[in-house]
Amino acid sequence: VTVTSVNREYNQFITNQLRGAQSAFGAQNAYYEKISQIDNLLASKTNPLSTNMQDFFTNLQNLVSNAGDDAARQTVLGKANGLVNQFNNTDKFL
User: Fold this and answer.
1) Over the stretch 36-77, which tens digit does the pLDDT of each residue have?
2) N or C: the chain end with fewer CB closer than 10 Å?
3) Measured between alpha carbons, how far is 41 from 4 in angstroms, rounded to an integer?
4) Please, are residues 76 and 56 in contact by the beta-carbon 8 Å criterion?
5) pLDDT mean across residues, the chain
6) 79-90 burial string, b = 16+ CB within 10 Å, else e?
């Protein structure tokens, strides 16, 4: 048996479909990575925004009930500063 030539056969339609699918995958993968980072930023297991906001408003309500309590004032200020820092970090990321 003697091989005289090798011909490359391919289907242009299939090639275009593959390129389109790879492009779509790349776009969706980039989107997923960014959304995951935002989710981790806002819903962190160690420092979730929702918990910090709830703590702030709980302590603010405590301060309203005990307006003369200096410790309650300091707690509210600390919680407010923590929220400001978290919002600033979120703003820098977004």
Assistant:
1) 988 888 888 888 888 999 999 999 999 999 999 999 999 999
2) N
3) 63
4) yes
5) 91
6) beeebeebeeee
Q: Tokens 């925004």 belong to which residue?
A: 49
Residue partners of 45: CB distance under 8 A and separation at least 6: none
SS3 31: helix
36: amino acid identity, one letter? S
Measured distance CA(41)–CA(28) in Å, rounded: 20
CA-to-CA distance for 85 and 6, rounded, in angstroms?
66
Angle between helices 70-93 and 49-65 in degrees, nearest 10: 150
Rounded CA-CA distance 76/63 in Å is 7
pTM: 0.62
